[in-house]
Structure formats: structure tokens, C-alpha cells
Automatic annotation (TrEMBL):
Region (Disordered): 1-21
Domain of life: Bacteria
Provenance organism: Actinoplanes flavus
Occurrences of domain GAF (ranges): 150-316
Biological classification of the source: Bacteria, Bacillati, Actinomycetota, Actinomycetes, Micromonosporales
Protein name listed in UniProt: GAF domain-containing protein
Pfam families reported for this sequence: GAF_2 (PF13185), PAS_4 (PF08448)
Length: 434
């Protein structure tokens, strides 16, 4: 598209440009170019044209004295020549909408759209001698309509929390379709500390290239993306073969057929690095304003998608952590209840045993005190019976110091039966005397 100069009246100040985002939208929506040409005779020979017509179609195409069919053969079959014929034949003005013109060929081909107005030219007798054509370029209007549609679809994806890979992949393909020149888009995602970049989306780059740069470090002189991430500012590499930052990646870029790369950091609202947005070309190129505006617009959209993804991931992590903590708490509560129940059971058993011991001791307390030890077994023992022992089943016996001590050591349920009878005191006194 040809540039349009600022033609303000003398003494008029420039309009307030406002927010940088407004400038980007202005560059994307642009200003229409008006072309003007006069054609003569039934063959519609170009008589004259304004500079915009020449700039748009090229001097080689805008030669005067040449029929329009030879100048613009790509318009054949698109209604342009038919309307010229109708106006010349009927003398009635006509309009044509969205006439598509393709300039150049191959990788240099450029698609343009125009709204044309056709008006008859007459001589002094009223006879139609030619046709006056005024065309207003609508290329950027078309692109803007596509842009709005694609951008709205991306925002809807983000709003419904579509997977990040789906959003970024769709974004890359949309930009590749919207860009006025052939472009390949790559989006890399930064790790939490901002020291490495990982594959996010690059549907049109070769797999070997995506794999090779997956996980590259950020730093000054590490390709366009590593440098842009490190500097937190756009990095324009118009010719990869001549940029020192690409020394370590030049062979890789050549194998992928990449000749230029423009990279822009994707930043969160608080300024920390989220990733990079890169636009590659197969030929050396310097970006135009519309290229940079498109990159900034979608880098901002990518930032929104990535931040939303991080928020959702943090939410899921927090929910998982809370669920795990609740499960651990439930386990702890169940274990505490089990231990408490076991402790209560042990306490009940101990209380029952103590009650049985007290009952047994009370039962044996009134039995007569024998003269000799009853613990000597079949051989008998002639030592005095000084200590009374009993067990929890109610059996009791009197014995000497030695046999009582042996019984206590070898029979776990045996205990000193009665302190009131002096047995325990005697036993303790005997122990202290040793």
C-alpha cells in the first residue's frame, strides 16, 4: 500500500495520538488511498492518472496511451471492464464494490481491494468519449474486518478458558492469515524465573526448528527471542545472516528457510516476562508500521491468555493442595480417634484388672497367717511365713523372703497381697537391708 502523507491545513496542530494502543489500531485500520484515472474510447485507453494510481499500480502498469485491458489484465472477469463498457455504452454512472486486484506474483504478490465509481466523460455535444474512474482502496478495511473477527474469536476462547495451546495455536494461524506479507509466527513461553523460553505455538515452523529452540536461555545476543526476553523490548533482525546474535542459530535458521525475525517480549501487567512473540519471513525484511502494530496487538492478547492460564493453574494447584490437606487432616482425625478408642479400651482393661486385684486382696485378707512358708513346693520350706502374695484370680499364699521374690520375678500376675498385714513393709525392709 502506498503511504499517505499528512495533509493538514497550515497552522493546524497534529491530532492527539493518545494511547499507544490507539496508534496501533490506527496503523492497522489505516487510511484509504484514492486513485483517479481518465480512460478514452471504447478500448478504455488510459489518458491520465493521479500519483496514487501510479504508485498503486506501478509505473510499468500506469502507462498512458495503453488500453486498460493491457494495463490491468488481472481485472478481467472481475466486473471492472464490464462496468467500464456499460458506462461508455449507456452514459449512466456505475459503482463497483470490493474489486480485487493482485499486484506482483509469487512471494511478492499483493492483494488489494477497491470500491470504484465510474462516471461518463462527454464532449461539447454530450457524446460519451470516455470514462472517469475514482477508486477508494478498501484493502485495510477488509483486513480490519478479518482482524476484528479473528480477535473477537480469540477473546471468546480466552473467556471460556480454552486450553492455552489451542488459543496460541489459533492466534498464530490468524496472524499468518491476516499479515499483508507472508509471515510465520512463533510464540515462546517463559519459565517462572524468566531464564528460559519454551515452545508455546508455531504451527508453520518445522518440527526440528521448534525442538531445537525449545528451552533456550534468555540473554543478550541469544537470537532475537532470547535477546528480546532479556531486554524486555522488541528486537528486529532484518537479515539473520548478518546479525551476530544469530551466530549459534544461523545454520538452524538456514535449514528452516528463515531469513528475518522480529521478536517482541510478552509482558504481564506487573512487567514480568511471560514469553516472546516472533514473526519470521523467508526473505530479509524490515517491518512496516502495520507489522509492528499487528505484533503489539496480538502480543497483548497473548499476555491476556497466558496470564489467565497462570491464574487458572494456580487456582487448580491451590485446590489440589487444599484437597490434599483436607485428606491428611481426615486421616489424622481418624488415627486420633482410633488411638483414643484403643487407649480407652486399655484403660477399661486396666481398671477391670485393678478391681479384680483389690477384690482378691480383700478376699484373702481374713485368711489365717501360717507359721511356715507355703511356697516351697513339694519339698516344703521351714522358713517363717512373713509375706503374703496373691494373684488376680484370688489365690494367695504366705511365703518366706526368698520364695516370694522368686514368685514375683517369674509370675507376672503375682503381687503383694496386703500392706495392712505388714507383708509389704517386711519385704521392703528386707530389700533395703541387702
Amino acid at each position: 500500500m502506498s503511504a499517505v502523507s499528512d495533509q493538514r491545513p497550515a497552522g493546524t496542530a497534529p491530532a492527539d495520538t493518545g494511547h499507544p494502543a490507539d496508534e496501533d489500531l490506527r496503523a492497522l485500520f489505516g487510511q484509504s488511498t484514492a486513485v483517479y484515472a481518465l480512460f478514452t474510447g471504447p478500448a478504455h485507453v488510459l489518458e491520465t492518472a493521479n500519483p496514487a494510481f501510479v504508485a498503486t499500480f506501478g509505473e510499468g502498469r500506469a502507462r498512458t496511451g495503453v488500453p486498460v485491458g493491457e494495463l490491468l489484465p488481472q481485472l478481467a472477469g472481475r466486473g471492472f471492464l464490464d462496468l467500464l463498457d456499460q458506462v461508455y455504452r449507456t452514459g449512466e454512472p456505475r459503482t463497483g464494490r470490493d474489486a480485487r486486484v493482485v499486484l506482483g506474483s509469487g512471494s511478492q504478490a499483493r492483494e488489494m481491494f477497491f470500491d470504484f465509481t465510474y462516471e461518463p466523460r462527454r464532449d461539447s455535444t454530450g457524446t460519451v468519449t470516455g470514462v472517469r474512474v475514482i477508486g477508494v482502496e478498501t484493502t485495510q478495511v477488509k483486513h480490519a474486518q478479518r482482524l476484528v473477527t479473528k480477535h473477537r474469536a480469540l477473546l471468546e476462547q480466552i473467556a471460556r478458558q480454552a486450553p492455552l495451546t489451542e488459543v496460541l495455536g489459533g492466534m498464530a494461524r490468524s496472524i499468518e492469515a491476516l499479515a499483508p506479507h507472508g509471515v510465520i509466527v512463533s510464540i515462546l513461553l517463559a519459565d517462572p524465573d524468566g531464564r528460559h523460553l519454551y515452545h508455546g505455538a508455531a504451527p508453520s515452523l518445522p518440527d526440528f526448528y521448534n525442538q531445537a529452540i525449545d528451552g533456550i536461555a534468555t540473554g543478550d545476543g541469544i537470537g532475537s527471542c532470547g535477546t528480546a526476553a532479556h531486554r524486555r523490548e522488541p528486537v528486529i533482525t532484518s537479515d539473520i545472516t548478518a546479525d551476530p546474535a544469530w551466530t549459534d542459530f544461523r545454520d538452524l535458521a538456514e535449514a528452516a528457510g528463515l531469513a528475518s525475525c522480529w521478536s517482541m517480549p510478552i509482558l504481564a501487567r506487573d512487567g514480568h516476562l511471560l514469553g516472546t512473540f516472533a514473526m519470521y519471513h523467508h526473505t530479509p525484511r524490515t517491518p512496516e508500521d502495520i507489522d509492528l502494530a499487528l505484533a503489539r496487538l496480538f502480543a497483548g492478547t497473548a499476555a491476556l491468555a497466558i496470564e489467565r492460564h497462570h491464574i487458572e493453574q494456580a487456582k487448580l494447584t491451590a485446590e489440589a493442595s487444599a484437597k490434599s490437606a483436607m485428606e491428611e487432616l481426615a486421616k489424622t482425625v481418624r488415627a486420633e480417634r482410633r488411638l483414643r478408642g484403643e487407649a480407652e479400651q486399655r484403660a477399661e482393661a486396666a481398671a477391670e484388672l485393678n478391681a479384680r486385684m483389690r477384690a482378691a486382696a480383700a478376699t484373702q485378707a481374713d485368711r489365717p497367717h501360717p507359721e511356715h512358708c507355703q511356697l516351697g513346693g513339694t519339698a516344703g520350706c521351714t522358713e517363717p511365713a512373713e509375706i503374703k502374695i496373691a494373684d488376680s484370680w484370688g489365690d494367695s499364699a504366705w511365703g518366706c523372703h526368698d520364695h516370694v521374690e522368686e514368685a514375683i520375678l517369674n509370675v507376672r500376675s503375682v503381687f503383694i497381697a496386703s500392706e495392712e498385714l505388714g507383708g509389704l513393709a517386711a519385704y521392703l525392709n528386707r530389700t533395703s537391708r541387702r
